[in-house]
Amino acid sequence: MKIGRGSQRRCEANAQREKTRHKPLQQAIKRGLNQRWSPKIISEQLKRNHPRPRKFSQDRAMRVSALTIYAYLKRDTISGGTSGGGGNLEKQLPRRGKGRKPYGSRGKRRDAMPGRKCITERPPGAENRSRLGHWEGDTVEGSHKASHVVTMVDRKSRFTLIGKAKDKSAATINTVTTSLLERLPQCLRRTTTLDNGTEFSGFKQLEQNLNMAIYFAHPYSSWERGTNEQTNGLLRMFLPKGTDFRYVSDVQLARIETMLNN
User: How far apart are alpha carbons 178 and 189 in whole angstroms?
Assistant: First the structure.
């Protein structure tokens, strides 16, 4: 007897829901959330801990997709905890989703920086994440715009570097960015992709300092630097909006950097 596509999809969805009723899996999800892991990281970690699942095996029951984890968290919230999570699991997510702003819909469009290279010119190793040494960079603003943090993330490994900047001038941002990356060997300093903020207007000097090519995303297209945007969102777990970075020590930043990298 043939089964329609709609029925098959419902069967698969029901099977995934049944998976999340598995007590050891629920406990693994809770442990991951307690460590500030996203559903994506939890899913990948479960795959590593339970490789090559066989049919009806314990390993097979412990492998689940990130989308199924999100659905489980939502179901737990709606049911008030009767699904086994206590009703508060969704609140432990490291990031809550935000809607994407329409392209160029707000604010004045920044003029292109003379001599800048567009993201479309990046080498294949940066585009497809096949090689280490291709970075994304940005700044995170503290309270009253009085302090800033520079974040640099490797596109392949997601390895993150964080540095504090006393202001948002191009010279200061160049100094901090150089200090973060110059300690790495040249093979790990291939390219960097930045946004169009004026703090990166001194990019030519930065290219000379680090001997690496710098590319720019399209204006108002933050998703083109999604790895860095995601990292900045995770950083806000430890340094929420309203934090004055002037009172955050280098030791504290180093601890946060270690937690993000592990």
Answer: 11
